[in-house]
Amino acid sequence: MPTLATVRLGENDSRYAPGVDPGTVPSPLDLLDLPLTRTALAELTLLAICGGLLGAFVVLRGLAFFAHAVGTATFPAVVVADATGFSATLAGLSAAAAYACGVERAGRSVRDPGDSATGLLLVAALGGGILLASDVFESGAAVDRLLFGTAIGLNGADLALSGAAAALALAATILFGRTWAAVGFDSDAAGALGLPVRRADVLLLGSVALAAVAALPAVGALLVSSLFVVPAAVARLFARDVPALLLGSVAIAACLAVLGLYLSLWLDVPPGPAVAVLGAAAYGMCALLTGLRASTRTPAAGTSW
């Protein structure tokens, strides 16, 4: 992950996106005209691919809390790496891999800690990271970037990692998608059919961990779920089968990424919160729409046909 970039574009300097006067509405073509936003657009598009594909199975498997927690679990490690000059990518991968292994082992144990342990981890990781950033390393200025991402400072290394995550997600979907779907619908039946449930679970957790680390520079540790849970949750409201869920999740993730980057450019805010707010609004409206449609199709009590 790059350090906080110093970018000066005339007098309208910006912390999160190239300098655009918030009082004027930028053209959508500015996303392609400005070199920094072209890089950010490519980064978010790659993340939309891996987030959409993996997110579909995250939702089916009930791993939304894990997808959110794995990003937050990396926060203390990337704070230390950012302050000491160590590779934040390697630090994040180590922390995410350790957390994924812990979740996989807990899932195989008789006394599965479940969501309680995940919640405790979220609090400990977030609190520990902020303490390290503010009191130990005094790197408070970098906290916003680490938590919420940035549209500036993304480079070729970030694109390479996101490309690798997208390629891994696509390959894993082709090889293990049927198993992940079967386990998501009925894990006991999938095991009885001889499907490699444990191997598939390990690969899914590992793939999500890698993709979460790849997403850190753009959306930050706190909002990884904006690309890995929300698009798939929206798509599941309408999808009738798994292929439709996959395609819809990727398409929605891409739309949220592009619109979120546009808002980041316009309002001078980090991309992560912009994508998260758009995703929450989209899910709320779609859930309301599907609820209204279901209520109109359901006959009132006591009504005969």
Protein architecture, described:
This protein has 305 residues and is mainly alpha-helical. The protein has one domain: ABC transporter involved in vitamin B12 uptake, BtuC, CATH 1.10.3470. Helices cover 73% and strands 0% of the residues. It is globular and about 50 Å long.
Number of DSSP strand runs: 0
**Main sheet overview:** none
CATH topology, by name, is ABC transporter involved in vitamin B12 uptake, BtuC
CATH class group: Mainly Alpha
Shape: globular
- In whole angstroms, how far apart are the ends? 62 Å
Mean pLDDT: 79
CATH homologous superfamily placement? ABC transporter involved in vitamin B12 uptake, BtuC
Strand content: under 5%
Briefly note the structural class of the backbone.
mainly alpha
Number of helices: 14
Named CATH architecture: Orthogonal Bundle
| Residues in helices, as a percent range | over 70%
What count of domains describes the coordinates?
A: 1
Poorly predicted regions: 1-15, 300-305
What is the topology?
Layout: H1 30-33, H2 35-61, H3 64-73, H4 75-84, H5 88-108, H6 114-136, H7 143-148, H8 156-185, H9 187-192, H10 197-219, H11 225-228, H12 230-236, H13 242-267, H14 271-297
